[in-house]
Specification:
This protein is mainly α. About 70% of the residues lie in helices and about 5% in strands.
Length: about 450
């Protein structure tokens, strides 16, 4: 059996796109799996994406839209001509098509729906909120009156076109559309051809109401080890089916949301997302407005640090060698502070750092800073003492470096936490504030110790 290297296929098509060989791109794209098609699309620049969409076949565009995020799929849908969008949605599963249509402008949605060949399978799915069981169900499943024979059911299934996603269940309903039973396709194949569905199907069916939470649907599927879950109304009429893969996606999203809630940062995550988008892709003046104030703080801090050096000018004039170690103390403190900030932001976002236990977290980081400062201070102090032949100089450098790193690691945790609590972007503000405070305190510590030991340094 011939196997394919998916990465080679992806790279080949990416190279064809770069060379503008769109006819070959169209032919090669259809040979890939849906996930690989979306990988190619998402790796392209915006201009290349806009060139690819008109070239690709409708089924390829449909595969891409089913794989990417809903908001990105809606952007693609909005960029397509209505008649092209109809072709693409026709290739999509009903629930996926409903997700796309739900994010469109109402006028465009109605225009497309009226032109869709099987719109009656999609319209009912648009009635339910996105976070409900009805919002994630599909109308693509097998359902028959419960008096239908096994032979008749199998004949009708064979007559239907093959589907990308086959639900391995057959559902039985009574004359009013109420759910009466379910049977696996494998069991149906073994049943007597003349036996009606009502006698071979299981009457104890696990189901969920259309307006119940989507997370509950995912948990029911997981609990009962089902491949699909029927969705019913208040009269137990069958409305649709939730597939296991859609439910697992919901469970992943809900689990991530719960983690953010427990960490107390869900609202920050939601509010910071638009800000991040504006800073990355927004107008230049907006980037200036956010970043310039913090840089001004750094500039003022640099002037204050210069003032500290001026205050201790007499000490520097007396012991000029002290200037040699100023960059070491400043740089080591800065690196330690930025390390702590990076660790804090990542841990906070992932839920590893809980706001209610922040005191414990910062005490631990102080212990880390103490250890880092001790090791760095001893090594640098010994080097300074041996290099200059002054043990007292080594003592000054070692103590100053150790205390500076301790303060920097403390600030690296405290400042981004305080900025987050105040609703200020910690990514933009933490670095300048830490640098400013660390520089001033580091110099004060360094020259203060040097002044105390001046008579021993001369």
């Amino acid at each position: 059996m011939k196997t394919r290297n998916r990465q080679i296929d992806i790279n080949r098509i990416l190279n064809l796109i770069k060379e503008g060989r769109w006819r070959e791109v169209r032919n090669q794209l259809s040979t890939l799996l849906p996930a690989d098609k979306s990988t190619i699309y998402e790796s392209l620049e915006y201009e290349q994406q806009q060139e690819l969409l008109p070239v690709a076949r409708a089924e390829d565009v449909a595969d891409i839209m089913e794989q990417i995020e809903d908001q990105d799929a809606a952007i693609i849908a909005g960029s397509l001509a209505p008649e092209v969008l109809v072709e693409v949605l026709t290739e999509m599963a009903p629930d996926e098509a409903a997700n796309v249509l739900g994010d469109l402008d109402p006028q465009l949605r109605q225009q497309v729906l009226s032109a869709l060949p099987e719109s009656e399978r999609i319209r009912p799915l648009l009635r339910y909120p996105d976070d409900t069981a009805g919002g994630i169900m599909t109308s693509d499943y097998y359902v028959f009156p419960d008096e239908t024979s096994a032979r008749k059911i199998l004949q009708e299934i064979r007559a239907q076109p093959a589907r990308d996603e086959e639900i391995p269940y057959v559902y039985g309903v009574d004359g009013h559309g109420r759910l009466t039973g379910v049977i696996r396709l494998a069991e149906l194949l073994r049943a007597h051809p003349n036996e009606p569905l009502r006698t071979i199907a299981k009457s104890q069916v696990v189901s969920i109401s259309a307006f119940q939470d989507q997370e509950l649907a995912a948990r029911i599927l997981n609990r009962y080890d089902l491949m699909a879950l029927p969705v019913v109304d208040f009269d137990n009429r069958l409305l649709g089916v939730i597939t296991a893969d859609d439910a697992m996606e919901v469970l992943e999203e809900e689990t991530s949301e719960d983690i953010y809630k427990r960490a107390g940062i869900l609202s920050a995550k939601v509010t910071q997302a638009p800000k991040s988008d504006l800073l990355v892709r927004g107008p230049i003046w907006l980037v200036w407005a956010v970043r310039v104030p913090f840089l001004l703080i750094t500039m003022v801090g640099g002037m204050l640090a210069g003032g500290v050096i001026e205050v201790f000018a007499d000490v520097l004039e007396s012991v000029v060698i002290l200037t040699v170690f100023i960059p070491v103390i400043m740089d080591m403190g800065g690196n330690a502070g930025l390390q702590s900030t990076s660790i804090f932001i990542r841990g906070y976002v992932l839920g590893h750092i809980e706001p209610r236990r922040f005191g414990q977290h910062i005490l631990r980081e102080i212990g880390v800073g103490l250890g880092l400062g001790l090791v760095s201070g001893i090594i640098t102090g010994i080097f300074a003492a041996v290099w200059q032949g002054l043990p007292e100089l080594g003592l000054v450098v070692g103590i100053a470096l150790g205390l500076t790193m301790l303060i920097a690691t403390f600030l690296g945790f405290l400042i981004p936490f305080m900025l987050t609590k105040m609703g200020i972007d910690p990514a933009a503000g933490s670095g300048p504030l830490i640098t400013t405070i660390k520089d001033i305190t580091g110099l004060l510590i360094y020259f203060g110790i040097a002044s105390a030991l001046l008579q021993h340094l001369l």
